[in-house]
Design brief:
The complex is a heterotrimer of chains A (524), B (453) and C (290). By secondary structure, chain A is an all-alpha fold. Chain A has helices at 18-23, 27-55, 66-101, 109-128, 154-182, 195-226, 240-257, 260-274, 281-294, 310-322, 324-338, 347-370, 372-378, 382-412, 418-445, 459-488, and one strand spanning 5-6. In chain A, helix 2 runs parallel beside helix 4 (109-128), helix 3 (66-101) packs antiparallel against helix 4 (109-128) and helix 12 (347-370) runs antiparallel to helix 14. Chain C has 290 residues and is mainly alpha-helical. In chain C, helix 3 (74-113) packs antiparallel against helix 7 (222-254), helix 3 (74-113) packs parallel to helix 8 (264-289) and helix 7 (222-254) runs antiparallel to helix 8 (264-289). Chain C folds into two domains: 1-72; 73-289, Four Helix Bundle (Hemerythrin (Met), subunit A), CATH 1.20.120.80. Chains B and C meet through helix 7 and helix 8 of B and helix 4 of C. Bound molecules: heme-A (2 copies), dinuclear copper ion (CUA) and copper (II) ion (CU). One heme-A sits between chains A (142, 255, 258-259, 301-302, 320, 323-324, 327-328, 331, 360, 363-364, 366-367, 369-370, 375, 378-379, 384, 387-388, 391-392, 395-396) and B (56, 59, 63, 99, 102-103). Copper (II) ion binds at residues 252, 255, 301-302 of chain A.
Chain lengths: 524, 453, 290
């Protein structure tokens, strides 16, 4: 493994302008594309959330038709999940995995390009449905039939957009697996890999196992609507609930796809700023694998109210509760890593600590939801909405933001503005809680989710949530400003960037060369 | 709006402080926590909820306590030197086993409650509930009472034209009346898409799935009015599909049954005016038809004798489950019911003048059709077609009647035939053919409708 | 251009991926419009398909050229192997969704509709008299799609099983020939495999015609028809793709591509073919036999 060969005859030259981005096979360029795409989509999905929150500011129909409201809810979720969190993680994987394992690039660079360049097309297709006759899909992101079959002209476009995104995710996952298994520098054994790499490896397996199942399920929706099949029609011997089973067989592992790489990010950041090695490395790896395994046998906790046989309800309740054990191990290990460290609190560390606390709160409400009899009360209320936003926003989104702060100096060669970063952190943390904490209350008090209007008793907390959401949205503008500022200039970053940073990526210059490790590094 | 400024401020405070001070609670407990409810099961569920909530809070206290202790003390700015430990199998085992034991502690009461909830045997009475976009149909199988229940909150409140009432969005035209201290079994199904029937105070929530029947039960301890909502996204008016249960003493329940005995309660208050005596006339025939059917079905069903449903409901559901064919049984029942309903109505209609019919059609349209076809008759392009200027509503009148009577399988447009009398259908169709500039001038009669049944 | 063994080949920028995105997106828009009854649909779909085909030819053409110049070292080869392997795994999961649907329908939804387990009242109230006999009443209590007869296993399906199993043998034979350097045996083996696959498809076509015209069994025949045609249909599509891939490989063999050590493309095609084979066995057992 000596030099990297490119078909450009060893010149480290690469195309400039638009064709650099359109045709690139470079993992860093592609990583950047993913991250930028994800940021744009965050604003799109966030704007939709703001429509939802504005409508819910007061009881009564204020701004939008209920049908459009439902379509905002549906699109908001699809955009946030498939357009923000997943691409952001893939972007991080692109940037970081080759550097972390000591490889020159991703294993399959041309396919890497395609994985990204599908997304703008798929999302154009998805978003364009908002302008079609009958509006966008409005049956919830879970696409339950028979309701979703009432979608207008948008229907086949939505289905194909989902197929397309799935294709992108599968190719991305295959690339990650091939890179991790095949591009490691000599001496980089599996149990020496940074946890970010490990969590991504496991995530990639989840992806290739469940994205095709999602594709299958939406294909059945398509044929039920257009080709006369009866998969989800009782009169023909099918069952609407069958869709839910297939969907959640995808859907539950999917939520871990949205969180495992975050675990990896936080496992890199906490030791750095605690100046102390990660506590329990190998148990972290096993815990991640256990979570992934369990995620395949708990799906029906999303559908306790559909009327499953008792034995099924019991099984899925108990299996779901078990997930708290390995997740707890991870939380405890992070705490033990901080314990007796020599901590400093730069922005990435702040976001990571907030992640641990707020994700755990979300995990607790998840555990409560797992208790079947109680879930009969919680299900389809704002308590569920509170749960998943706690694990997704101060969970996944915070981890992604932390990762950006952590590696931005490495990527750009410039230090970001710490004061602005801290301001961003405090604004985000305060507002995110103001947005989502009151949702627990209204949920418990009986407010169903996916409604554009509500009884007066829920008014106050909804007002708080709306204020919080707008505040949180504004805070993200600070973030964008900061990132742009850092890209354009600033204090030069050292190679190691952070005093306590360890790992191969910190041995490269900041910014790193176009091909990360042309020569495989020595691994101690 | 019944909320004082004072209260509002307290709530803001609770919300801001609660994350930090879990104990500060009495301000408005009922608006931040699950209701205790009025059934044994709801009490069990409430207790279970409180146990797991408190356990989680305690674990949180320990974990977050450790984090904050560490943040405060183990910081570089205080000159703290980092220790270098990074592994301990013993510790890992301890914090695997302890949560596991805690979880077992939670699982035991949870399992007990769950088993009790699923036991629908030995019920005193059975109610069959059928969900529609966007209303509920209730059928008291042992009492021969059945009726539709729809949102009663006026649109003017929803669109902020008039002040909102206390039970805004949680009012219905026909309440579900249930006796207290009786085990009521509920058979739940849907006619179109998934819905869910939920009353927080009863701790009962189940999905209504088209083509399948879900069972649940409740036994209410205290008389009172309990309100809930549809809890599964079911389309545009999912948020406007409330449920109201009025629990009363047995004697009062019996009186209520007697008052509505054996007949279909009007689908809405407005229907009463024109077809006031229809239900009564129909009663005798209907009840006897129901009896025969019930016998047949209970023979077939064996253990679930009461599962047999009476005529209208059976027919409606079978048709609605997007089946191409209606079971013979149901068909036969449908004809026997409608026959009984028709005769007296026809007489009423032929004498009525256009204006009265239009008004009635308008009212019915508002209640039953507007949510899809919209107030201006323009529908929602490509989802719900316009009636205004539509080919059907301005073309062949028989096709129009047929569409309303039989709906169109596989679409949201369901068969309204079983639900309405001929006169009602005639009124709606007349209205549609003459509103919004659909000036066909047609006056549809109940006989015309009858001929197309 | 250096041919240093041991360096990892990173291709430089390529326009094929974006051409692919344009192609597939156009194809999808066309298909969606078609389904919506828009008359422009088929034309758009064909344009999209054409662009996609150009992409496939261009992209694979580039890869073949690169491969033949010998710039792919062993490590690149291994990347391809992992890629192909996990791609096939994802395909397996795609089929799993449909097998899952079949399993669920047969073991849960149909029995419930027929009154078993907690379906007692479902049957008594909504579908009185319905008996859940599989496959005979596999079109459900609403008799969706009307009367139909089911497809037996003994006729065409059995022949097709034998055909696919033998094709598994012929491709293995071809592989051995390739490794032993017997090019003519390789070509004969491959050609036989392609032929067997084609005959398979021919029979499947006959089977479908038989089903539609004589048995009354269609895609719309309730859940039986749905699962039957979706499973066999997607399988048939994969056989077709596999046969096309093998045909390309056959032409490459005739042109003298591959040698005893370097022939990953051949192996990838063979893996794919075996996968198609195994799925068929699953179909034969769960769709036709039991
Ligand atoms: C990042 C995404 C993510 C993550 C990580 C989780 C994590 C968990 N989720 Fe969540 N969930 C969602 C995203 C996520 N969820 C989404 C999007 C939905 C809604 C989908 C929709 O309907 O639209 C949902 C819905 C949902 C439901 C269905 C609710 C309903 O609709 O009625 C349930 C029910 O069981 C559930 C449970 C859990 C559990 C048990 C965990 C566990 O993994 C949590 C484990 C963590 C902890 C428990 C905290 C840390 C542990 C300790 C400190 C150890 C000690 C603790 C104890 C012993 C208690 N989730
Ligand atoms: C990763 C996933 C993710 C993320 C990040 C978010 C982020 C947010 N979500 Fe969402 N959400 C889901 C996943 C996610 N959500 C899912 C899966 C559902 C369920 C859907 C369903 O029921 O089918 C859901 C549903 C959902 C609901 C329930 C809707 C309903 O039931 O009808 C609400 C309501 O408040 C909500 C709010 C928010 C808010 C306020 C944010 C905020 O965090 C967003 C913050 C971002 C911004 C605000 C954008 C940034 C700034 C600008 C646009 C500039 C302009 C700003 C100003 C002028 C202030 N979400
Ligand atoms: Cu009915 Cu929601
Ligand atoms: Cu889940």
């Amino acid at each position: 493994m000596s030099a990297v060969m490119t078909s450009e005859d060893h010149h480290e030259e690469h195309p400039k302008g638009i064709s650099r981005w359109l045709f690139t096979t470079n993992h860093k360029d592609i990583g950047t594309l993913y991250l930028v795409f994800s940021l744009i989509m965050f604003f799109v999905g966030g704007a939709m959330a703001l429509v939802i929150r504005a409508e819910l500011f007061q009881p009564g129909i204020q701004f939008v038709d209920p049908q459009f409201f439902n379509s905002m809810t549906t699109m908001h979720a699809l955009v946030m999940i498939f357009g923000v969190v997943m691409p952001a993680f893939t972007g991080l994987a692109n940037w970081l995995i080759p550097m972390m394992v000591g490889g020159p690039d991703m294993a399959l660079p041309r396919m890497n390009n395609w994985s990204f360049w599908i997304l703008p097309f798929a999302f154009t297709m998805l978003l364009s449905t908002l302008f079609m006759d009958g509006g966008g899909p409005a049956g919830g992101w879970t696409l339950y039939p028979p309701l979703v079959l009432q979608t207008g002209a948008a229907f086949p476009f939505v289905i194909f957009a989902i197929h397309f995104m799935g294709l992108s995710s599968i190719m991305g996952a295959i690339n990650v697996i091939a890179t991790i298994l095949n591009m490691r520098a000599p001496g980089m054994t599996l149990m020496k890999m940074p946890l970010f790499v490990w969590t991504w490896l496991i995530t990639a397996y989840l992806l290739i196992a469940v994205m095709p199942v999602l594709a299958g399920s939406v294909t059945m929706l398509l044929t039920d609507k257009f080709f006369g099949t009866s998969f989800f029609n009782a009169a023909g011997g099918g069952d609407p609930v069958m869709f839910q089973h297939i969907f959640w067989f995808f859907g539950h592992p999917e939520v871990y796809i949205l969180i495992l790489p975050s675990f990896g990010v936080v496992s890199s950041i906490i030791p750095t700023f605690a100046r102390k090695p990660l506590f329990g490395y190998s148990s972290m790896v096993y815990a991640t694998a256990s979570i992934a395994f369990l995620s395949f046998i708990v799906w029906a906790h999303h559908m306790f109210t559909v009327g499953m046989p008792l034995a099924g309800e019991l099984f899925f309740m108990l299996a779901t509760m078990l997930i708290a054990v390995p997740t707890g191990v991870k939380v405890f290990n992070w705490v033990a890593t901080m314990w007796k460290g020599s901590m400093t609190f730069e922005t990435p560390m702040l976001f990571s600590i907030a992640f641990i606390i707020l994700f755990t709160i979300g995990g607790f409400s998840g555990l409560m939801l797992a208790i079947t009899p109680a879930d009969f009360q919680y299900h389809d209320t704002y308590f569920v909405v509170a749960h998943f936003h706690y694990v997704l926003v101060p969970g996944s989104i915070f981890a992604i933001i932390a990762a950006v702060y952590f590696w931005l100096p490495k990527w750009t060669g410039h230090m970001y503005n710490e004061t602005l970063g801290k301001a961003h952190f405090w604004l985000s943390t305060i507002f995110v809680n103001l947005t989502f904490f009151p949702m627990h209350f209204v949920g418990l008090a009986g407010m169903p989710r996916r409604i554009p209007d509500y009884n007066l008793q829920f008014t106050d907390y909804n007002m708080m949530a709306t204020v919080g959401a707008f505040g949180f949205g504004l805070a993200q503008i600070v973030f964008v400003y900061l990132v742009v500022q850092t890209i354009r200039g600033g204090k030069k970053a050292t190679d190691q960037v952070w005093e306590g940073a360890e790992g191969l990526e910190w041995t490269l210059p900041s910014p790193p060369p176009y091909h990360s490790f042309s020569t495989a590094p020595e691994i101690k | 709006m019944g909320l004082t400024k004072m209260k509002t401020t307290t709530r803001w405070l609770v919300a801001l402080l609660l994350p930090f001070m879990v104990s500060n609670a009495h301000a408005s407990w009922s608006s931040v926590n699950m209701p205790k409810g009025v059934t044994a099961i709801s009490h069990d569920v409430y207790n279970l909820h409180m146990i797991i909530l408190i356990v989680c809070c305690l674990i949180g206290l320990v974990v977050f306590g450790a984090i904050f202790y560490s943040i405060i003390n183990h910081r570089k700015s205080k000159g703290y030197k980092a220790a270098q430990f990074h592994e301990s199998t013993t510790v890992e085992i301890i914090w695997t086993v302890i949560p596991f034991i805690i979880l077992i502690g939670m699982a035991i009461p949870a399992t007990k409650t769950l088993i009790a909830m699923e036991d629908t045997s030995d019920a005193d009475m059975t109610v069959q509930i059928t969900a529609y976009q966007w209303k509920w149909h209730y059928n008291y199988l042992d009492h021969g009472v059945n009726f539709y229940s729809t949102l009663a909150t006026p649109r003017s409140e929803i669109y902020n034209k008039t002040a909102k009432s206390e039970d805004y969005l949680l009012q219905v035209d026909n309440e579900v009346v249930l006796p207290i201290n009786k085990k009521v079994r509920i058979l739940l199904t849907s006619n179109d898409v998934n819905h869910a029937w939920w009353i927080p105070d009863l701790a009962v929530k189940k999905d209504a799935i088209p083509g399948f029947i879900n069972q649940m039960w409740t036994k209410i301890d205290k008389p009172g009015v309990y309100r809930g909502q549809c809890a599964e996204l079911c389309g545009r008016d999912h948020g406007f599909m409330p449920i109201v249960v009025r629990a009363v003493e047995q004697a009062e329940f019996d009186k209520w049954v007697a008052a509505n005995n054996g007949g279909a309660m009007p689908a809405s208050a407005s229907t009463t005016t024109l077809a006031s005596d229809t239900p009564q006339t129909a009663t005798a025939t209907l009840a006897s038809a129901a009896e025969t059917v019930m016998k047949q079905a209970s023979d077939a069903a064996g253990s679930v004798a009461t599962a047999a449903s009476i005529a209208t409901d059976n027919a409606v559901t079978a048709a609605g489950a997007t089946a191409a064919t209606i079971t013979d049984n149901a068909k036969q029942m449908m004809s026997s019911t409608t026959e009984a309903v028709k005769a007296p109505v026809a007489a009423v209609t032929s004498g009525a003048d256009m204006k009265a019919i239009m008004t009635k059609g308008d009212e019915l349209y508002r209640i039953h059709c507007l949510s899809c076809h919209m107030a201006n008759g323009e529908g929602i392009p490509n989802v719900f077609p316009a009636i205004k200027g539509s080919a059907i509503a301005t073309g062949d009148v028989n096709a129009h009647i047929d569409m309303v009577l039989n709906g169109k399988t596989g679409t949201a447009m369901r068969a309204f035939g079983p639900q309405f009398s001929d006169a009602d259908i005639a009124a709606i169709v007349t209205f549609e053919r003459n509103a919004w500039g659909n000036n066909t001038g047609d006056l549809v009669t109940a006989d015309q409708v009858k001929g197309l049944r | 251009m250096a041919h240093a063994q041991g360096s990892y080949y990173i291709p430089h920028g390529s326009h094929w991926p974006i051409v692919g995105s344009v192609g597939v997106a156009t194809l999808m828009v066309g298909a969606a419009k078609w389904m919506n009854g828009d008359s422009s649909g088929p034309a758009i779909l064909m344009i999209g398909l054409a662009i996609t085909l150009v992409m496939i030819f261009g992209w694979f053409g580039t890869v073949i050229k690169e491969s033949e110049t010998g710039i792919y070292n062993d490590q690149v080869d291994t990347s391809f192997r992992w890629g192909m392997f996990w791609f096939i795994f994802s395909e397996v999961m795609f089929f799993a969704a449909f097998f899952g649907a079949l399993y669920y329908a047969r073991n849960y939804s149909m029995p419930w509709l027929g009154g078993e387990g907690h379906g007692v009242s479902t049957n008594a109230v909504l579908w009185p008299g319905f008996e859940a006999v599989w496959p005979a009443h596999g079109n459900g209590p609403g008799q969706i799609g009307g009367e139909f007869k089911t497809m037996g296993w003994a006729g065409i399906p059995l022949i097709n099983t034998l055909l696919l199993l033998s094709s598994g043998v012929t491709i293995t034979w071809a592989h051995h020939a390739l490794k032993a350097g017997h090019r003519s045996q390789l070509i004969i083996g491959l050609a036989m495999t392609v032929a067997l696959g084609t005959i398979f498809m021919f029979f499947q076509g006959k089977e479908y015609i038989h089903a539609y015209h004589e048995l009354g069994l269609t895609l719309g025949s309730g859940i039986y028809g749905s699962t039957f045609f979706m499973l066999t249909g997607f399988h048939g599509m994969h056989v077709t793709i596999g046969a096309i891939i093998l045909t390309v490989i056959l032409f490459r063999c005739i042109k003298g591509h591959f040698n005893a050590e370097h022939h990953f493309a051949f192996e990838a095609a063979a893996w794919y073919w075996h996968f198609v084979d195994v799925v068929w066995l699953g179909l034969f057992i769960f769709v036709y036999l039991v």
